[in-house]
Amino acid sequence: MANHSEDTKMTERSTKEKDQLINRLKRIEGQVRGIQKMIENDRYCVDILVQVSAINAALKKVSLNLLENHTHHCVTDAIKNGDGDEAIQELMEVFERFSKS
């Protein structure tokens, strides 16, 4: 995890990882636009809800991927550098937010 300023933490990702995340997010964006059209076209509520559920699952998958990478890289590096307590506290706060969703 590289700090580029005092306030903003940055994480360098490989081109492959960025591409995978961006492609997933673009698919989700397309799904959201599809729901907008479904509403404009007065589609059946249950059909829309099924699509909303699919979007939620896709976003959760993106989140879990980011969380896994954060744990393997950022938290592991922080522990190796003696900043483990802070990184673990931050990770636990993320888990707490995650469990509310």
Short summary:
This protein is mostly helical and 101 residues long. It is built from three helices and two strands; from the N terminus they run E-E-H-H-H. Helix 2 packs antiparallel against helix 3.
Key features of this structure:
101 residues, mainly alpha, two-stranded antiparallel ribbon, 3 helices, 2 strands, 4% strand, elongated
What is the SS-derived class?
mainly alpha
Strand order of the largest sheet: 1-2
- By oligomeric state, this entry counts as single chain
Average pLDDT for all residues: 90
Annotation field: number of helices: 3
What string gives the helices and strands in order? EEHHH
User: End-to-end span in angstroms?
Assistant: 26 Å
User: Largest beta sheet, briefly?
Assistant: 2 strands, antiparallel
Extract low-pLDDT stretches.
Answer: none
Rg: 18 Å
User: What would the principal axes of the Cα set say about the shape?
Assistant: elongated
β-strand number: 2
Helicity, as a percent range: over 70%
Strand residues, percent: under 5%
Describe the SSE topology.
Elements: E1 2-3, E2 9-10, H1 15-40, H2 45-80, H3 84-100
Antiparallel strand pairs: 1-2
